Amino acid sequence: MVEMPVIDRDKCDGCGLCVGVCQCKVLVLVDNVVNIIGKEKCSSCNHWCSQCEDVCPTGAIRWPLEIVIE
Amino acid sequence: MAVPVEFLQSIPHFSGLSPAEFDSIKELIFEKTLQRGELVLIEGGPAEVLYFVASGAVKVFKSSAEGKEQILRIVRPGESINDVSIFDGGPNLTSAQAMGSVVLYGIRRGELEVILRDHPQVALNVNKVLAGKVRILASLVEDLSFRPVIGRVAKILLEHARDGDGPLPRLTQQEMAAMAGTVREVVGRSLKALEDEGAIRLERHRIVITDQEALKDMVDAYS
């Protein structure tokens, strides 16, 4: 399973908006690029909010979803 | 703390002003800091302040009678909140909430009127800002009234779903929005509506189609 969210380091401009909105505190800026720490904690907010993707102005942080039929 | 002139210079409302004009305007602007979840505006409340986001992100939304939240847009640094209600004199059109730590700069309605009178360039700029918002809203109206998005989202889900082995396609809501010719917020709303209808289930890594026939009905109903 792909770890979420997916980060494109080349697109990240280091604005930090995703870090500010992450309720699970799993995003940090390192050398002005967003990184994930403690992926297992992501979604500890219990609703996999994907707000990081919502606020990213450059499309560097994505939350791609599989589409499956039950 | 006084608003930095460099920040004001980046705001479309104040474009083209002289250094002296910036100096006089900045005296009328105050700073406000909010933490995650705190409300900037309450829908229906009195519109008293025009805000500019200096740092962080703010969610602008409306609430339905059933308490459902519909996100209209996410406001990022350099963008404004509450222009329409401030200038038409009506109540706040929307609510707005801090998505994390947020710093805002605000101008009270009365002070704004002084600025508009004393600095005609600001009035011209505001015309442009408001016209831009009308253009965005017109596009949203077109989406909501002429091109029912929910049917197109249902079609995208059916076209990209896999029920066997093999690599699964993965789509972000932004990509679905581009395919459906709409914006991410409308896709998010459509997915929630499809979940409420029992056609899909939203999970952390995936969208599970629980009722293919219901999805097909959505496609037929809106095509």
State the distance separating the first and last CA atoms of chain A.
17 Å
Q: Would you tell me the overall average pLDDT of chain B? A: 89
String of helices and strands of chain B: HHEEEEEEHEEHHHEHHEEH
Mean pLDDT of chain A: 86
How many DSSP E strands of chain A?
A: 5
Shape of chain B: elongated
Calculate Rg of chain B over CA atoms: 21 Å
The poorly predicted ranges of chain A are none
Largest β sheet strand count, sense and barrel closure of chain A:
2 strands, antiparallel
How helix-rich are the residues of chain B, as a percent range? 40-55%
**Termini separation of chain B (Å)?**
55 Å
Shape of chain A: globular
User: What percent of the residues of chain A sit in helical stretches (DSSP H or I)?
Assistant: 10-25%
Write the layout of secondary structure elements.
The complex is a heterodimer of chains A (70) and B (223).
Chain A: E1 6-7, H1 17-21, E2 27-30, E3 33-36, H2 51-55, E4 61-62, E5 65-69
Chain B: H1 5-9, H2 19-26, E1 30-34, E2 39-41, E3 49-55, E4 58-63, E5 69-75, E6 80-81, H3 83-88, E7 95-98, E8 102-108, H4 109-118, H5 120-145, H6 149-160, E9 170-171, H7 173-180, H8 184-196, E10 200-202, E11 206-209, H9 212-222
Antiparallel strand pairs in B: 1-8, 2-7, 3-6, 3-8, 4-5, 4-7, 10-11
Helix pairs in contact in B: 4-5, 6-7, 6-8, 6-9, 7-8
Keywords:
heterodimer; A: 70 residues; alpha+beta; Alpha-Beta Plaits; two-stranded antiparallel sheet; 2 helices; 14% helix; 24% strand; B: 223 residues; Jelly Rolls; Arc Repressor Mutant, subunit A; 2 domains; 4-stranded antiparallel beta sheet; 11 strands
Structure description:
In chain A, the strands form two sheets. A two-stranded antiparallel sheet of chain A has the order 1-4. Chain A has a two-stranded antiparallel sheet with strand order 2-3. Chain A has two helices and five strands; from the N terminus they run βαββαββ. Chain A is of the alpha+beta class. Chain A has helices at 17-21, 51-55, and strands spanning 6-7, 27-30, 33-36, 61-62, 65-69. Chain A has a single domain (6-62), classed as Alpha-Beta Plaits, CATH 3.30.70.20. Chain B has a four-stranded antiparallel β-sheet with strand order 1-8-3-6. Chain B has a four-stranded antiparallel β-sheet with strand order 2-7-4-5. Chain B has a two-stranded antiparallel sheet with strand order 10-11. The radius of gyration of chain B is 21 Å and the shape is elongated. With 223 residues, chain B is an alpha+beta fold. The N and C termini of chain B lie far apart (55 Å). In chain B, β10 and β11 (206-209) form a beta hairpin. The longest helix of chain B has 26 residues, at 120-145. Chain B folds into two domains: 5-144, Jelly Rolls; 147-222, Winged helix-like DNA-binding domain superfamily/Winged helix DNA-binding domain (Arc Repressor Mutant, subunit A). Chain B is 44% helix and 22% strand. Classes of the chains: A alpha+beta (70), B alpha+beta (223). Chain A binds chain B through residues 1-2, 4, 15, 17, 19-23, 43, 48, 50-51, 53-55, 57, 59, 62-70, and chain B through 36, 55-57, 74, 76-77, 99-102, 157, 160-163, 168-175, 184, 201, 203-210, 212.
